Amino acid sequence: MQRYSGFGLLKHSLTHHENWQRVWRNPTPKKEYDVIIIGGGGHGLATAYYLAKEHGITNVAVIEKGYLGGGNTARNTTIVRSNYLWDESAHLYEHAMKLWEGLSQDLNYNVMFSQRGVLNLGHTLQDMRDIQRRVSANRLNGIDGEVLDPQQIKEIVPHMDCSDNTRYPIMGASWQPRGGVARHDAVAWGFARGADAYGVDMLQETEVVDLVIEDGAIVGVKTNKYGVIKAGRVGSVVAGNSGVIAKMAGFDLPIESHPLQAMVSEPIKPILDTVVMSNHVHGYVSQSDKGDLVIGAGIDGWNGYGQRGSFPTIEHTMQAIVELFPIFSRVRLNRQWGGIVDTCPDACPIISKTPVENLFFNCGWGTGGFKATPGSGHVFAASLATGEMHPMAKPFSMFRFHDGALIDEHGAAGVAH
Amino acid sequence: MFYIYCPHCGEHREEEEFHAKGQAHIVRPIDPAACDDKAWGEYLFFRKNPRGLHHELWIHAAGCRKFFNMTRDTVTYEIKEIYKIGEQPSVVAGNKLAGNK
Fold first, then answer.
1. Which of A74, A274, A310, B83 has a CA 20 to 30 Å removed from the CA of A136?
2. What are the Rhodanese domain coordinates in residue numbering (chain A) (predicted)?
3. What is the predicted ipTM?
4. Domain around A269
5. How close A311 comes to chain B (CA, Å)?
6. This prediction's pTM
7. Any idea what DSSP says for residue A379?
8. Closest Cα in chain B, distance from residue A53 (Å)
9. E strand or H helix at A127, and its extent?
10. What pLDDT was estimated at residue A321?
C-alpha cells in the first residue's frame, strides 16, 4: 500500500497527480475463504480490517451488493459520541470513541474526525433529571460529560435561542467535549484501503442470494455473480437487510426496518462549530466542513425498505431546528435522503452468535450505528476470529430477547428515535 | 407521503392523521403463564419485517381514533388494501394481484 504523506502529495504533484495507486483492488474471488463478511459498509469493512490487523486472518472476503460504503454509511449524519446510559452500551461506544481518536493515524487515511463536542439539550424537568443521571453514569464509566445551564450553552452556541420565549425553553444540556463528527465516506474508504492492503478481497456489486448450510452449520454463501463461495465463518453486517439474511438462515430477528431521513442545507459560512441534539423538540444539527448544515431527526414510524420517507417527518425535523435556531429559518435545504435502519426493541444492537453454527450477526444498530463503526468492527472481528463472542459483545446477544436481559437505551441515549 | 383511506370515516386523509402501530394479526398467547421464554419473547419482540407485502396495524390517531389494518408493500410503499380489525387480508404474499387492480 502506498502510504499517504505530505511528501507524497508533493511528489505526485510533479506528475499532475496522475499516478496515484488505486485505493483498493477489484479482485476475482477465491473458491474458499476463512471468513466471509456480508455487507461492505463501515461496520463490515472495519470488521475485515481488524480481522487482518489484530488477528492475522487475511483470507477474508467482503461481499457487497452495491458499492463500498454506499448504504447507511453514506447516509448518516456523522455524529460520534459515547454518552450512553447503561454500562454495556457505554463500554461499547467508549471503546469505539477511543479507536476514533487514533483512527486517522492508524489507517493512514484522514477520516476528518473532529472532536467539536456534542450537546444534548433538555427542555423539561424530566429531561434534566435524565441528563443528570446519564452524565453521572457516564462519569462513573470514565466518559467525559458535564451538565450545562442555559447561560453556559449560550456561550458555546451563541446563535441558539436559549431564551424563555420559545415553546420549549432550553433548561440545560449534557455536554460531551470529546464527541464530534467524522467524514462518513472516508471511514469506509479508509477501512477498505487498510483491509485491502492486508489482502482482503472486496467483491462489489455482488449479492448474496442464499446461504449454504449443512448440518446446522454454515459452509458458504451463494452469490449472484460467482456462484457458491465457501467459508469457515460468515459474519452478516447488512443493517436494514439483516432480516432478509436471517430468513435465508431460517431464523427470525426482533428487528424492524424503518426509513430514517436526513438532509443538508446549502453551504453557508461557518456558524455552528459543535453538534446540537435535542430529544424533546427532536432534531439534531451540525455543520460540515463544506458549510452545509447537516440535519436529522426521527424515523418514519412504519416499516420500509425504500430508502425514502415521508414529508411530515421532514417538516417536524425542520420545525425543531428552526425553533432552536431561528436564524436558520431562511437557509434553503439542498438535498434530502433516506436510509433503512434496522431497529431493535431495546434500541441496542445485536452482535451475536446465531442458531446456525459459524454464522454471526452484527446488526440492529438502528439509528446510531455510525459512531460505533470502529468499535463494532473491532469486537466483531475478535468474535469471528476466535468463534467466541468478545466480552464487550456478549451482552448484545440476540438471545436476550428470549431471556429478558434487554439493554434499554430508549431516550436515555440523548436522542430518542 | 401516504394518502390513507380510513374504513371507519369512509374518507381518504393525509398520513399525518395516522400512526403506524406495527405488525397486524399478532395473537396473544391464550395462557401466557404456560409460555416458555422463547414463546413469550417471540410474542413480545419478534415481528415480521418483510421486504415486500406487509400486513400492519394503523390508528386514525387525529381522526376517529379507531384501529384498522393495511396491506402495504414495504419497497414500493404502495398501499394494496385497507381492511377492518377482525377481517382477513385478501392480498397476501405470493398472491400479490388477488383483489387488487
1. A274
2. 35-79
3. 0.90
4. 114-179+256-343
5. 6
6. 0.94
7. H
8. 36
9. helix A125-140
10. 96
